[in-house]
Amino acid sequence: MVGDHDTVDNYKHIADANTALITAVSTSQQVVEQATREQAHPAQLMSPRPFGRWYMRPSVLIPLLGVFLFLVGGILAWLYFGQRAQDVTVYQTRVSAVDRYIGGSGSIYPLQELNISYPAVERVLSVYVKPGDEVSPNQSLVQLDVTQLNAQVKQAADDVAAAQNYLHSVYGSNSLTVDQAQRSYDMAVARYNSLVAQVSSPTLHHGMLVSPLKGVVTHVNIDPGEVAAANASLITLVVESTVVAHVQIPLSNMNQVYVGQSAVITPSVLPNVNLRGTVSTIIPQATSGGDTFEIWVNIENTKKELLPGMNTFVRLLEPVHAIVVPRLAVLNPDQGATVFVVRQGHAYLRHIQIGGYADDSIIVDAGLSAGDLVVLTGADTLQDGQAVHVLATEKSR
C-alpha cells in the first residue's frame, strides 16, 4: 500500500511540473510574438508609451527570457527530484524478551590478600619462597629464630608462679596488700597468655611461619639474617582462583543493579574472552566524578586468565520485556537518540529514550510503540516529513 501511494504522489508531481512547463513556454512565445510585431511596425515604436516600453526591446527581452526559463527549470527540477520518494527498508517493532545489559569499566583485584607477619621482633633464619611461587596450606615460608621468644615465655611462666605464690602468702592480710598482690598476678597471667598466643599463632609452627591457604606469593619483604619488626609484613599471598572486579556503573542505572546479578567480564587485553561473574557488593555512594557508583563482581578464575591490575569491561545482564530496534536504525545513540518512523508514505523524525543494550540491538524505554515502522537503511539522508518508498520490511524474531 505504501508503494502505491508513493507512485500516485510521483505522478502528481510530474503532472504539476508538465503544466508549469507548458505555461512557461506559452508565455515565452507570446512575449516573442509581441516583440516581433512591434519590430515589424517601427512607427508604433515612436508613439508615446509609458516608460518607453524599454523592456520590450530584443536586447533586453532575450536575457530576461533566459533568466525566466532558468528559474522555471530550477522549480521543475525541485518538484521532480526534491519530492521524489526515497527508497528505504524498515523494521517493524514489537515487544520482545531480551537480556538487557548495563556496561561499566573497572579493574581486577584479588578476592583475598593476606600479609604474613609476626607480632614480635625476631631474627629471620631462612626464607623458602619467592614472588610467583604457588603455595599450599601449611607450607613453610620463613624460619624464625624463636630462642628469645621461648625465653620470654619461660620467664613469663615463672613470673606467674611467683605472683601466685605471693598472692597465697598474703591471704589474711589487710585488703590493700591483697588487692595489690591480685593485680600483680593478673598482669603476669596476661603477659604470659600474650606470649603463648604468639607461639600458638596459626601461621607459626615450631618457629616456622607457614601458609594458611592455597595461593600465590606476590611479595617477599625480608631476607635471611635480617631482624623482622613486630607485625611487619614479611610475605604477601593472594588467592587467584577467584578474583573481584571493582566496576564503575552510571548512577542512572543504580535501580537496575542488585546483588546476585549475572555479569559478563571481558578483559581489555583479551577482547575475545568472556567470563561469567556475579555481583557481590554494591557501594551506595557516588564516586569522585559524581556520575558513577562502584560495584564488586566476583569471578571464577580457575584458568588464571585474569590477573590483579587488569582493566576490564563488565556487562550486567537483566532479562526484560521491551521494544528493541537494531543499532543501525538509531541516529546519535549516545546523545539525543532519534529514529525515522514511516507513516502514510512519509518518514518522520522521532526522539526515543534508550533503556539499555541487548547484543546488536537497542532497548527503547520511550518514544516507540509496538508495530511502528522504523527506517533501517537510508535514514542518514532523510529529511523530516520526506516521502519514502518502502522496499522491504524486516520483523523482529
Would you mind describing this structure in some detail?
With 397 residues, the chain is of the alpha+beta class. 29% of the residues lie in helices and 39% in strands. A hairpin with a 7-residue loop joins β11 and β12 (275-286). α1 (2-40) runs antiparallel to α3 (58-82) and α4 packs antiparallel against α5. The longest helix has 39 residues, at 2-40.
Give the DSSP E fraction (strand runs of 2 or more residues): 35-45%
Give the H and E element order: HHHEEEEEHHEEEEEEEEEEEEEEE
Shape: elongated
Structural class: alpha+beta
Distance between the termini: 23 Å
- Can you summarize the main beta sheet? 6 strands, antiparallel, barrel
Query: Given this structure, which CATH class of the largest domain is correct?
Result: Mainly Beta
Radius of gyration: 44 Å
CATH architecture of the largest domain: Beta Barrel
Could you tell me the CATH topology label of the largest domain.
Elongation Factor Tu (Ef-tu), domain 3
State the domain count. 5
- Tell how many strands the DSSP assignment holds: 20
Number of helical elements = 5
Oligomer: single chain
CATH H level of the largest domain: which superfamily?
Efflux pump adaptor protein, beta barrel domain
Short description:
With 397 residues, the protein is an alpha+beta fold. It has helices spanning 2-40, 42-46, 58-82, 147-169, 175-199; strands at residues 86-92, 95-116, 122-127, 134-135, 140-145, 204-205, 208-210, 215-220, 227-228, 235-250, 262-267, 275-286, 292-300, 311-326, 338-343, 346-351, 353-358, 361-366, 373-377, 386-395.
